[in-house]
Amino acid sequence: MAWVLLVVAGVFETAFAVSLKQSETFTRLWWSVSFVVCAAASFALLSAALRTLPVGTAYAVWTGIGAGGTAVVGMLAFGDPVTTLRIVAILLILGGVVALNLAPSAAH
Fold this sequence. Notes:
Its main location: membrane. The protein is mostly helical.
């Protein structure tokens, strides 16, 4: 269950990054509200996942999902450059997230 919470937290991280961009320095009310709600949800879910997951692994997975997700949204919705290197970099982030998920961890 902790992994599900962590993945959803990563999706909310992507949403709060997009909302932050769309808020235009907090001058657009609803995008600003979206940022606050998504950030709060993301941190709350990350916090819940940290009850059972190792902090280093959980934080790396959370930021990886957020970074990769935000890069993809940027390319699809905001016209960010789509290059082979950017796609390879996103795949490397995804590979790291998968590897951390597969790595054994001791439960404390």
